[in-house]
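Service request form, structural biology core

Requester: graduate student, group of Dr. S.
Request type: structure prediction, single chain
Budget code: on file
Notes: please return the result as C-alpha cells.

Sequence provided:
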Amino acid sequence: MVLTGAGVSAESGIKTFRDSDGLWEGHDVMEVASPYGFARNPEVVLDFYNQRRRQLLKVLPNSAHKALAELEIHHDVTIITQNVDDLHERAGSTDVIHLHGELLKVRCTSDENLIMDWKQDLNLGDLSKNQDQLRPHIVWFGEMVPMMDVAVEVIEKADVLVIVGTSMQVYPAAGLVQYAKEETPIYFVDPKPTVSETKRIKVFAENATTGVPKVVELLK
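Core staff response, request fulfilled:
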C-alpha cells in the first residue's frame, strides 16, 4: 500500500497545495476549495480549477510515478493518493484510490454520484443530464471523504506501507496510518521527514524522484 501526497506531483511541475503564506495561487483556500466559496462566487472557483486542469494536461509522470507502476510487476500494489491529478494512472498504476477527488472529472451539483470525465474548461451553464450545474469532482473543505472507508480497508490488509511526499499533517488522510497492522514495515520518503527512523520505520530524507526508486528496488 502506497500513500502519496503533493510531493510526488511537485517534481512533475504541479504546484503543491498551498504557499508558505497560506494562499493558493493568490486565493484564500476557502474561496476556491469549499462549498461556501463555490456558492458565493462560482466563476472564480471554476476558473481556478480550469487553470489547474490546463496545467495538468501539460505535465508528465516522473520517475517516482513510474517506479511505483513498475512495482506492480512484483507485488499487489494499491496507491491511495491525496493528489487530484492522474499522473499515477498515466505512469501505468492500475489500482489508484483518490481520496480528494479527480481534477479530470466533474460531477452534478445535485447528485454527487453523477460523475463525468472532463478535460476541457468547465463553465457556468455546463449542465449534467439532470440539467443542474456541473462542478469539479474535488473533495472540498467541509465535505465528506467518500473513499476513506475503502482506504482504511486497504491499509488494514497491507503487508508493507510506503508513504511518499506527504507531511502527514492533513486529516483525515493523516489518520490512515493508525489502521496498519503493528508489524507492518513503513518506508517514508520525504525531503523534510516529519517522522524519525525506528526499527519499524525506514526514512528516506530525499525527493520522491530519487527516494521512491530506492524503495522499489528494496521491495523487489
